[in-house]
């Protein structure tokens, strides 16, 4: 019986990987961000489609699978983000990850509270999660939409940094829901605690890997492969250590390890980078399809017109407002500001963390809130679904409409 179940699971994983590879192939052929095909594939094999994958398929292991996958994805994105890129990044990028993130958080929370009659706790959770755009959706877009370096850097920097801060902010707010009383400084302490733990762990792991790669002699034929494997293991180990101390600190650890290693003198850098990108594409495909397959349309339909209103405010009002406020010093012409405004799809972090929160809220242990769980999950997934299908799926057309596509040589 156990062997039969294992074979079914292996076949299922193989099918998901196959769908993911097909999505990447179609994305490359038709120059459309792969996210679009991944979502469609996930819905097709989920409860709303063929029913191959259900919420019970992976059971309690889902959170672990998603967590490790997110660590690899975030590590790869931050590895490519050099200090020089950040230092010379447009001021708009710095504003988007500070003032812009704060405005998105508060504006989204207020919208959810007004439109969906949600409690402030659920509204703030949704607001925190939807701050994140993330490299999981931005990178595939930039792979098929060539734009000016300043635009690409701004979107990438925002995605990587906001992925980390959104995840930590959301978990802090969720933990505050379980506390009897928590003063404002308590929120700050929980946030700094997790961010600090993640940064410290990431730095230590990065230094260890750097030492092993630069100070330990390896046979020439084995060195490139060893470098690739050490870098990948660094992402997972950093995530696991930090997350075992404080939940969601692992995301910050993986990001810090990637950013640190990406800015150190490493042998076989190009080999590491290419390997990370290949592994990330595979992991991204698996996780996106798996999470999309858990989508239940009944939860989305329950939001009604008000849910679509939330999506409209988030994507068409808040996002452009935040972008235009962050780009007031003339760095970007209006056409590029409009493009950035309408390319803010949400990715893996909101989907995965919202799923984990919903599972917890649907249990009988405090803070049990089944209705809040459905509202949280439905709102987050509706925003992800609409923004990914429209903003990611038609990113090239949006770029062409605003005239921001750079000539490819």
UniProtKB/TrEMBL annotation:
<dbReference type="Pfam" id="PF00999">
    <property type="entry name" value="Na_H_Exchanger"/>
</dbReference>
<protein>
    <submittedName>
        <fullName>Cation:proton antiporter</fullName>
    </submittedName>
</protein>
<dbReference type="GO" id="GO:0015297">
    <property type="term" value="F:antiporter activity"/>
</dbReference>
<feature type="transmembrane region" description="Helical">
    <location>
        <begin position="305"/>
        <end position="326"/>
    </location>
</feature>
<dbReference type="GO" id="GO:0005886">
    <property type="term" value="C:plasma membrane"/>
</dbReference>
<feature type="transmembrane region" description="Helical">
    <location>
        <begin position="95"/>
        <end position="116"/>
    </location>
</feature>
<feature type="transmembrane region" description="Helical">
    <location>
        <begin position="338"/>
        <end position="359"/>
    </location>
</feature>
<feature type="transmembrane region" description="Helical">
    <location>
        <begin position="159"/>
        <end position="177"/>
    </location>
</feature>
<dbReference type="InterPro" id="IPR006153">
    <property type="entry name" value="Cation/H_exchanger_TM"/>
</dbReference>
<keyword id="KW-0406">Ion transport</keyword>
<feature type="domain" description="Cation/H+ exchanger transmembrane">
    <location>
        <begin position="19"/>
        <end position="386"/>
    </location>
</feature>
<keyword id="KW-0050">Antiport</keyword>
<feature type="transmembrane region" description="Helical">
    <location>
        <begin position="197"/>
        <end position="214"/>
    </location>
</feature>
<keyword id="KW-1003">Cell membrane</keyword>
<keyword id="KW-1133">Transmembrane helix</keyword>
<feature type="transmembrane region" description="Helical">
    <location>
        <begin position="122"/>
        <end position="147"/>
    </location>
</feature>
<feature type="transmembrane region" description="Helical">
    <location>
        <begin position="35"/>
        <end position="55"/>
    </location>
</feature>
<feature type="transmembrane region" description="Helical">
    <location>
        <begin position="6"/>
        <end position="28"/>
    </location>
</feature>
<keyword id="KW-0472">Membrane</keyword>
<dbReference type="InterPro" id="IPR038770">
    <property type="entry name" value="Na+/solute_symporter_sf"/>
</dbReference>
<dbReference type="GO" id="GO:0006811">
    <property type="term" value="P:monoatomic ion transport"/>
</dbReference>
<keyword id="KW-0812">Transmembrane</keyword>
<keyword id="KW-0813">Transport</keyword>
<feature type="transmembrane region" description="Helical">
    <location>
        <begin position="279"/>
        <end position="299"/>
    </location>
</feature>
<feature type="transmembrane region" description="Helical">
    <location>
        <begin position="61"/>
        <end position="83"/>
    </location>
</feature>
<feature type="transmembrane region" description="Helical">
    <location>
        <begin position="371"/>
        <end position="390"/>
    </location>
</feature>
